[in-house]
Write a structure and sequence with these properties.
The protein is α+β, with helices and mostly antiparallel strands and 163 residues long. The chain has helices at 10-39, 46-64, 139-162; strands spanning 4-5, 66-69, 73-77, 82-86, 90-97, 106-113, 118-126. The chain has three helices and seven strands; from the N terminus they run E-H-H-E-E-E-E-E-E-H. It has a four-stranded antiparallel sheet, covered by helices on one side.
Length: 163
């Protein structure tokens, strides 16, 4: 089963990729320095290495954070967790105001499940933010992604009825 990003934000992904590479590089430099000092009887920088590795891990997780789609369902990856819903559990998709950025006039695609709960996705746009390709999404792009998600949901329902 192949998962594909619904709305890759290339600029954000590039930034997180650079931060991950820098964190790994700095951790390597500090670790080598610590090993050299340890053999000479000096003080090591183990705590700094741990912090840099945590930085690198967070940057990699943020690089991979997004909304993914496959033939099996929808997957939402965030910094700390990953959740997957099968197409059978999903009732509909809609665009509603974001929970956190109402001051910016932000809207997000929400997943409405059959149990009545709603989940905000990472696919969003804000009327007050500029439309910068790869960083901030335009309203038209968000509506196109909504149409794609609704089409994928309809195809999954048709495929399950054909079985």
């Amino acid at each position: 089963m192949k998962w594909r990003r619904v709305a890759p934000r290339w600029a954000f992904m590039g930034l997180m990729g650079c931060l991950a590479v820098l964190g790994a590089l700095f951790a390597l430099i500090v670790a080598v320095d610590s090993l050299q000092k340890a053999t000479a009887g000096g003080q090591t920088h183990g705590f700094a290495v741990v912090i840099l590795l945590a930085w690198t891990t967070a940057a990699v997780r943020l690089f991979r954070a997004d909304l993914y789609v496959s033939t099996e369902g929808i997957r939402k990856r965030t910094l700390l967790r990953q959740r997957t819903w099968s197409w059978a559990a999903i009732q509909d998709f809609t665009i509603k105001p974001m929970a956190g950025l109402r001051l910016l006039g932000g809207y997000a695609i929400w997943i409405r499940l059959h149990d009545g709960s709603e989940i905000e996705t990472s696919v969003h746009y804000a009327e007050s933010l500029p439309e910068v390709r790869g960083m901030f999404m335009s309203e038209a792009e968000a509506h196109e992604i909504l149409r794609q998600l609704q089409g994928a949901l309809a195809r999954s329902r048709a495929a399950s009825q054909a079985r």
